[in-house]
Sequence to fold (127 residues):
Amino acid sequence: QVRVVESGGGLVQAGGSLRLSCTTSGLSFANLRMGWFRQAPGKEREGVSCISWSGHNTDYADSVKGRFTISRDNAKSTLYLQMNNLKPEDTAMYYCAAESHVSFLTCSTSPSSYYYWGQGTQVTVAS
Fold:
């Protein structure tokens, strides 16, 4: 059974930092492109960042460039999202996801490209 589990969310003040983790099992983690997504109440799900199978290629939403950093540790089957200089508009449920097929091409931040999803971890940024 494939499992994708996020952790590391919480309540922080504006300007603070959090590091989200995503632990996977039941899939070939090292061979799949992965991404972070978020959804605020009443808003559409949006892509935050993605990373290629090797970690050499990454992409970010314009709203988080320069503040968030995605990385992966294939030996631990874990994906990370370092979030710095957090803003109230970053408040959302954050989801980790993996694509269903192996690819060496550039990753995508489109949610429709992903198949395996975690349950989410809540990030709340107070102003």
Observations:
- Residues 13 and 126 are 5 Å apart (CA to CA).
- The mean pLDDT is 93.
- The first strand starts at residue 3 and ends at 7.
- The chain is about 0% helix and 45% strand.
